[in-house]
Amino acid sequence: xxxxxxxxxxxxxxxxxxxxxxxxxxHCALSLVGTFFCLGxxxxxxxxxxxxxxxxxxxxxxxxxxxxFVLMLLSSKDSEQYANKWPIGKxxxxxxxxxxxxxxxxxxxxxxLQLGPKGAYPLEVVEEVxxxxxxxxxxxxxxxxxxEIIAILLLVAVIGAVVIAKRRLQ
Amino acid sequence: MIPIEHILLLSAxxxxxxxxxxxxxxxxxxxxxxxxxxxxxxxxxFVTFARSMDSMTGVIFIFFIIVVAAAEAVxxxxxxxxxxxxxxxxxxDEYNLLKW
Lengths: 170, 100
Known about the structure:
The complex is a heterodimer. Chain A is built from seven helices and no strands. By secondary structure, chain A is mainly alpha-helical. The radius of gyration of chain A is 21 Å and the shape is globular. By secondary structure, chain B is mainly α. Chain B has a single domain (about 5-95), classed as Helix Hairpins, CATH 1.10.287.3510. Helix content of chain B is about 75%, strand content about 0%. Chain B is built from three helices and no strands. The radius of gyration of chain B is 17 Å and the shape is elongated. The mean pLDDT of chain B is about 90.
């Protein structure tokens, strides 16, 4: 179990490094899809099957296909990496992200991660009811207002995308 | 059971790679992909905490995060599309329409 987790973790970090270093943006998109699949596998190991399914369906299936469509639509000749006009910026970016990493990793380092009281859904309850049934029940009772608002947000985003991307008629 | 610190460390590494991608890459669409990578790193820590805290709230939050990420990708890519029509490039250094 632990070995499989480490394999998928290494593969997902490898995919992330591919996004960072590959020159062709299409290769970047494909390595990001690999990262999403590995994260989906880790979600299965964490008993979050619903999240794993929508990770693969929505992220790897829908969002990345949209990215690839736009990349191929805008196939500019200068798809290689552009020259950086400000070389010292790379050093600054490295230092800043190192600081961010130390900040995040320091939060849970040295085993002093203090978690609050446990919730009402231990693994036995989730496996008895089924995680998807539980999520559906919560979404349509406790979180119904957020659910309706997010539906309107999605509608607004779709209409906005059509309006923005529309070609102006002469 | 996978130790929670290791999953959180993976999440931190992925988030840092996303931050580096936003700051180092010059192609707008690759910058956008790095933002998606950061969102995924946050999703991973949400699932981890939801599992270790015996709570369901983290999973519900991920549902909302993924919807917001989809909306963001759609609107952002259409903005990139319409800027590309006037600028003919994906280099973010050339996108200085608001500068004067």
